[in-house]
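Q: What would this chain look like folded?
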Amino acid sequence: MRRSYRVKKPKEVFPPCDVKGCEKEGSCRAPKDRTLKEYYHFCPEHAAEYNKNWDYYKDMSVDDIERTIREDTVWQRPTWAFGKKAKIDDPLGILGAAKGVGQAAPKMDKETEQAMHILGLTPPLTKDKIKRKYRELVKQYHPDKTGGDKEAEERFRRVVEAYKKLSGE
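A: My prediction, written as structure tokens:
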């Protein structure tokens, strides 16, 4: 028959309470200052009283408090505004569409700008947006619909060329 033996843990020994005249065990730790490296040892009653009156932000200016709170929200790690240091691939210029967000839209060559102007488009461009506008203008300026109007035929030809430039065909 096996016997199980329990090892009794030794009772934890605490220093005496740091309040003068108190003879209870100082089983509760309380920080001495903002560095949180040194602690008082209080009995539970004195710890509760100390905690009610302790102010982490005591003797700090409003700016110091604000800075501390901001640092604490990111666990004291350095941060930077989105898009300033991060290199993000944004071929459609979506992030540059909203002012102050992400990286700016890439510079376009004159032919692309002219093609966008012909189709009446503005950045950011999507393939769907280009195709929709192209279909609308082709229906409007098609020679069969305009009855042989030379000006409409020229406009139709420029719309087709602009679409080819923007769609990559």
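The helical segments are 44-53, 62-73, 110-119, 127-141, 143-146, 150-167.
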